[in-house]
Amino acid sequence: MFLDMEQGKLIISKERFGLTIQRLCHQILERHVHLEDLCLIGIQERGVYLAERIKNQLVNMLGSQPFDYGKLDITFYRDDFRRRDTPLKAASTEMNFIVEGRNVLLVDDVLYTGRTVHAAIAALQDFGRPSSIEMLCMVDRRFNRHFPIKADYKGVAVDALDEAYVRVRWKEYHGEDQVLLFSGKSDS
Amino acid sequence: MSLSQLSTKHLLGIKYITKEDIELILKTATEFKEVINRPIKKVPSLRDVTIANVFFENSTRTRISFELAEKRLSADTINFSASSSSVSKGETLLDTVNNILAMKVDMIVMRHPAPGAHHFLAKRIDANIVNAGDGTHEHPTQALLDAYSMQEKLGTLENKNVVIIGDILHSRVALSNIFCLQKLGANVMVCGPATLIPRHIASLGVKVEHNVRKALEWCDVANVLRIQLERQDMRYIPSLREYALYFGINKTLLDSLNKEIVIMHPGPINRGVEITSDVADSGQSIILDQVENGVAVRMAVLYLLAGRVG
Fold first, then answer.
1. What is the ipTM of this complex?
2. Dihedral angle, C-alpha A122, A126, A128, A132, nearest 10 °
3. How far is A22 from chain B (nearest CA, A)?
4. Mean pLDDT value of segment A31-38
């Protein structure tokens, strides 16, 4: 079934990758009439890669950036602190706006157990009371959830065993845009 | 590969941690500094951790700074000071601490007048220990926050010249600073009257200077220490006035240099003795930044020690 443990199985090719991003942007525009109320927030670290891409694509389509854009690090809000095998390193939070009364769109690359999103929602409370929070992800592993959390916008839904892991690769960081599925346990 | 956890279970002194440990603490402190500048300055990381602040020696700044750091990490805290406790009834250090630990405390932040008190405890108890000052030995979190403040101002400490001026003999800040700055690649000089400079301090690889003007001409940063009035058990200096005259930092002296140096002071300041008010309150001084950074750095230390696995 899997081509190779090392290579992984291709779920989204680079050709489809751009189309998927475009579709996600159109879906955002379709739902958000008042873009000035929108806060696009990438979850550090990998969610930021996707958020950055979505932001650039939206700016391309609109010719300006009417919405706020930020990066949120959730390390200090995780529920597995002191429970993990390896501690996590904190990344930076860059949010120079408050989310009080705004429509927040959280962005992460893979939605898996839902714990990251749960922590992100907790972290967001420290920046005000948003009027709504939505979730966008590139990959939705829909049968592996630990919390009642769903994605409002998703690139692709993947049904895989708990042992498998999904990796989104980015042209800027890994050489090529693609989504891969691996059968082994993740190393990170 | 960069570390994601400290190599040590306790913070007993800068001497016992690595350069990578220091860099991890300073990097983590940057993220906490962002947190404490938010409208809501609190994160839930340490919500299941209880920390005891055990102070066998007086402290205002350090204790408040630790307490704030703990509260902003959502830890539960208890405060203990020797003067109002059973220590005055003759209880030993180990008994006191074991009694506190029996109430299920996870970490101990301790200040003690005896150098090495923390090492003694570290061998005998399980909880993480943070040294908040042990006699004239070390004060590691002060050195870390000093390094953080210098880095914030200068970028890197690599090859920067830092002079520590004042009572080096009685200063735990000086010793921790020397270790920390050297590990980060800075050149360190100590400057003060010969009676207040330990005899073999040059063996640590620091320069020794007795002329303040020469020291200031050499340095990028001057860390001015307090004359410890409580530790003048014998006459190390003839008078405070004479000290101020020969070793005090004043505006005229700084203005006569052909460069602008950074002025630091760990507090509390004896205004008019080691430093004049016009210097302490000038734009060159980062004394209040040091205090602000102290909370962020202590948050980083507590967070990293609590999160350490094994």
1. 0.77
2. -20
3. 33
4. 93
